[in-house]
Design goal:
heterodimer; A: about 600 residues; alpha/beta; Pyruvate-ferredoxin Oxidoreductase, domain 3; Rossmann fold; 4 domains; eight-stranded mixed β-sheet; seven-stranded mixed β-sheet; globular; B: about 350 residues; three-stranded antiparallel β-sheet; 11 helices; 12 strands; about 30% helix
Chain lengths: ~600, ~350
């Protein structure tokens, strides 16, 4: 075991595994985060992979990475800069070095750094030999050779052995943290249940990596991170996409409405479809449609017949669904549309994250077609926002667009497991059989919500559709005055939802110098940046919005408490322009980034300091 | 092996009649439009089918045909252009206890909704599609459609169309359709019969109605429906019976080698025994395709049920998978799910 005297106590550490896509970096990162969770640490993860399944070997385009931020403190972000970088080839080193902290430990597979691979990555000279990495703690591990040698006695060929190189590096990392290998070994036992020789091989490589780290002096200090202080409860690691799927399943169970998903595969939203398809045992009906339009239209059909109906997509898919969202607005049917945003326009950056579909979600339909818009803010709270989206859709008989994004969907975080019984009630406004007063568009005077008459119910036969409705009766109407009334009612119904959502919270004091405004998936970084400045005694607070349409009722009051307001978002200024429209009494500054990358805490702190 | 389950659509406790399905809305099709007769046929057939009236559901897209749900007193949904089949897919999968009827046209299902049309058929979802084929866009006032005969002069083809039209029957069979029938809007009795057969069929049933648009494509089906020619231009096919037609019932269809051929009984020693006997239930769609493709002037057009083959339906298979999953999975409620896999307690 390692030398205990060399321990450095750390608050948090950022580890990134990167290599060729196909090198198993996503798996190494996932296994590392599972081990960290079992050590009692808080964590957040972020995969960063190319759009191509197997891009050309040893090229920058083919680099796949998985970043894990672990710590004893509350982990809000996946970390600006990397403390330990695992780089399996020159291309992955080259593309990740700019995100690596000076003095960081860089573990490379030295065997993969030859003239050809260095040249392919764009290096003129071998970076392991030209002293360009002097400022780092460089560990030149012969990973390929040691892995092959370790497995030779088991009769395993080099090609197969090379596939376990990721496990070797995992062994090195576990040594750095002095962690047990148990969780990873038990993963192998489950994964290779029918191939005991593969369990043996992976275990051996893991141990070889661990022992290698024990013998090399260059590795320097080991890290120790104390257990995180977290609210008591049962926890698990969860990605945003899985949390979204589970929140929707919970809503179906609590509302008593069967779940129907109509969807079409699209990056980075596909995992929600995949996840829900697993749970026919919960009665979930998942329909992989022929296209995005059939996805939403089948969901609208299911909604008319009484299901909690869902469709999941990303930006280009939301464009295709626009007309059908309008149909759901006109027919006032419950429908949850999840948009896992990615870089746009058009096909854009499928595997990169952005917040650039906000205006599309709010206004991207023909006619005046208001819908409720929510935005989840962390991978784990995708569960609660998906649940709330379903609750609002069902109780207010309206489409709800839930915005998440690629970082949230693929990123993971620890999730405190709730009890389904503790979640809020969901009570859809079902029409009673043989209700003599039933009319399709008769509304509750308070909420303006119409009743849901489910086919099969006696005495409630009725017809609805996309043509304008006569107020009350729901018959087709082209009467000009009626169209005005119905347009106003549809808008008012959505605004009334503000009575059923929480007030906007403020992180920090309610009055001060600068109010940072952010929304959706950037919460981790904006909160970390604001917290850092608050610790320095600066009069800065954060209002992070998740309820976009309608805005919380106290929005004006929240904004009024500060001399300056800066709105930060990963687009060119969509939420800030929405605020300029909705809350025109204030002057807004803005901070935007459209690079397919998250904000860094560093750049936010620098920007906020300029304003203070 | 898949077993065909008992159908769960509830039957009416009382006898129903036409008036049970008449809605309070004024019918706004042009006088003389073929759609009126299709509406009459639906009103005939729904009581005959015998399900509870609340268990019928009509779905439509956009076009003249798609106003249909407003005129039938059932649960109904008038969708958007081309999407009736997609909407109805969701209706049937979510609620298999409904008898789902789709009213659609040659623009709605052959053009803008062509994708949904072939996929609902491929999946064999148990719905009934009534395809109003008037070979024209009526509601937008007279543009050519994917079934308009080549060379037709319309508002958007002043020099005649230069597109090969679809034969809907070919498309249905090409998409592995399990049920295809054809009728003409001048024959309410035949429409009612094939609709009843469609309702009995488990799977996607497509009924093509050769419909007249009196305003924009009047007499488009004249070569088939005109009183003077119809006995020679139509053949009413019935399961188990030889294919005989003609004013004097003296013509027939036989299979000569790999091709169909029109023959005259009594000529060259031809008797009824030489004629093709219709088998609507046979799995192989080869002969069905040949029948669906018959068209004047060389052949009469085939009317009646051309194909009605038994295959598992998508909606039944979904239910079967749910039953199986519930019987075998350890995850039977969301609490089970949330606590599955790696979890740990923090105190």
């Amino acid at each position: 075991m390692s030398d205990q005297s060399n321990f450095i106590e750390k608050e948090d550490v950022v580890v990134k595994f990167c290599g060729d896509s196909g090198d198993g970096m996503q798996l190494a990162g996932t296994l590392f985060s599972d081990a960290a969770a079992l050590q009692g640490l808080d964590l957040a993860t972020f995969p960063d992979y190319p759009a191509e399944i197997r891009a050309p070997h040893n090229t920058i385009a083919g680099v796949s990475g998985f970043q894990v931020h672990v710590g004893r403190k509350k982990i809000d972000t996946t970390g600006d800069f990397v403390d330990i970088l695992v780089a399996m080839n020159p291309a992955s080193l080259k593309s990740n070095l700019k995100w690596t902290r000076p003095g960081a430990t860089i573990i490379v597979d030295a065997d993969s750094f030859d003239e050809a691979t260095c040249k392919k990555a764009g290096y003129l000279t071998n970076p392991l030999e030209d002293n360009s990495l002097e400022g780092y703690n460089l560990v030149k591990a012969p990973v390929t050779m040691l892995t092959r040698n370790a497995l030779k006695p088991l009769g395993i060929d080099n090609k197969t052995a090379d596939r376990t190189r990721n496990v070797f590096t995992l062994g090195i990392i576990y040594h750095i943290f002095s962690w047990s290998l148990d969780s990873t070994v038990s993963y192998f036992k489950t994964k290779f249940k029918k191939k005991p020789e593969m369990v043996e091989a992976n275990k051996l490589v893991l141990e070889t990596g661990y022992s290698y780290a024990d013998t090399v002096e260059t590795l320097g200090s080991s890290y120790h991170i104390a257990k995180a202080k977290m609210a008591p409860g049962r926890y698990r690691n969860i990605t945003g996409n899985v949390a979204t799927a589970w929140g929707l399943l919970a809503a179906a169970e609590r509302s008593g409405r069967p779940l129907f998903l109509g969807s079409y595969p699209i990056t980075p939203a596909t995992e929600i479809l995949i996840e829900l398809a697993k749970f026919k045992s919960l009665g979930a009906k998942v329909f992989q449609a022929e296209d995005e339009i059939a996805g939403i239209c089948s969901a609208i059909g299911a909604s008319y017949t009484g299901s909690l109906a869902l469709t999941t997509t990303s930006g280009p898919g939301l464009s295709l669904k626009s007309e059908a969202i309008g149909l759901a607005v006109m027919t006032e049917l419950p429908l949850v549309i999840v948009n896992v945003q990615r870089g746009g326009p058009s096909t854009g950056l499928p595997t990169k994250s952005e917040q650039s579909d906000l205006m599309q979600a709010l206004f991207g339909r023909n006619g005046e077609a208001p819908v409720v818009v929510l935005a989840a803010s962390t991978p784990a709270d995708c569960f609660h926002f998906a649940y709330e989206a379903a609750k609002l859709a069902l109780e207010h008989m309206t489409p709800v667009i839930l915005l998440t994004d690629g970082s949230l969907g693929n990123g993971s975080q620890l999730f405190r497991i709730p009890k389904v019984a503790d979640l809020p009630d969901i009570t859809p406004p079902l029409a009673e059989p043989n209700d003599k007063d039933y009319k399709p568009y008769k509304r509750d005077p308070e909420t303006l919500v119409r009743k849901w008459a489910i086919p099969g119910t006696e005495g409630l036969r009725h017809r609805i559709g996309g043509l304008e409705k006569e107020n009350g009766s729901g018959n087709v109407s082209t009467d000009p005055a009626n169209h005005q009334i119905m347009t106003d009612l549809r808008e008012a119904k959505i605004q009334k939802v503000a009575d059923f959502i929480p007030e906007q919270g403020i992180f920090g004091a309610k009055k001060g110098e600068v109010l940072v405004v952010s929304w959706g998936g950037t919460r981790g970084t904006t909160e970390a940046a604001v917290e850092e400045l608050q610790k320095q005694g600066k009069k800065i607070s954060l209002a992070h919005f998740s309820h976009i349409m309608p805005l919380p009722k106290n929005t004006h009051e929240v904004l009024a408490g500060f001399k300056k307001i800066i709105v930060c978002e990963l687009n060119s200024g969509q939420f800030v322009n929405y605020l300029r429209m909705k809350e025109p009494d204030f002057k807004y500054s803005q901070f935007n980034k459209v690079m397919g990358l998250p904000f860094t805490v560093t750049e936010l702190v620098a920007k906020f300091n300029e304003m203070l | 092996m898949f077993e065909f389950p008992e159908k769960t659509i509830e039957r009416s406790a009382v006898e129903l009649n036409k008036s049970d399905f008449v809605s309070d809305q004024m019918v706004k099709w042009c006088p003389g439009c073929g759609a009126h007769a299709i509406l009459a046929s639906i009103a005939n057939v729904f009581p005959k089918i015998g399900y509870r009236k609340e268990n019928f559901m009509m779905v439509s897209g956009i076009g003249c045909s798609s106003r249909f749900p407003y005129y039938v007193n059932t649960y109904g949904f008038h969708g958007i252009h081309g999407r009736a089949n997609a909407i109805a897919s969701g209706v049937k999968i979510a609620n298999p206890n409904l008898s789902v009827w789709i009213a659609t046209g040659d623009g709605d299902s052959m053009a803008i909704g062509g994708n949904h049309f072939i996929h609902i058929i491929r999946r064999n979802i148990d719905v009934n599609i009534v395809l109003f084929n008037n070979q024209i866009y009526g509601l937008t006032k007279g543009q050519y459609s994917p079934t308009t005969p080549m060379g037709s002069v319309t508002k958007t083809s002043p020099q005649g169309t230069i597109e090969h039209p679809f034969n809907p029957g070919e498309l249905v069979l090409g998409a592995q359709g399990t049920f295809f029938a054809r009728a003409v809007d001048t024959n309410v009795k035949l429409m009612t019969e094939v609709m009843f057969e469609a309702a009995r069929h488990d799977g996607t049933s497509v009924i093509e109605i050769l419909q007249n648009c009196i305003i924009f494509a009047d007499k488009t089906h004249e070569a088939i429906t005109d009183k003077e020619v119809r006995d020679d231009a139509q053949i009413h096919i019935k399961n188990g019976e030889p294919l005989i037609f003609g004013k004097n019932k003296d013509k027939g269809i036989r299979l000569n080698g790999t091709q169909l051929e029109v023959v005259t009984l009594g000529e060259n020693g031809i008797t009824e025994d030489d004629l093709l006997v219709h088998d609507q239930y046979q799995q192989d769609p080869g002969v069905h395709l040949m029948l669906a493709k018959m068209y004047p002037p060389h052949f009469p057009v085939a009317l009646g049920v051309i194909r009605s083959a038994m295959y598992p339906t998508y909606d039944d298979l979904v239910e079967e998978q749910i039953v199986h999953a519930k019987a075998t999975s350890k995850i039977l409620c969301v609490d089970d799910l949330l606590n599955s896999g790696d979890t740990w307690e923090i105190e």
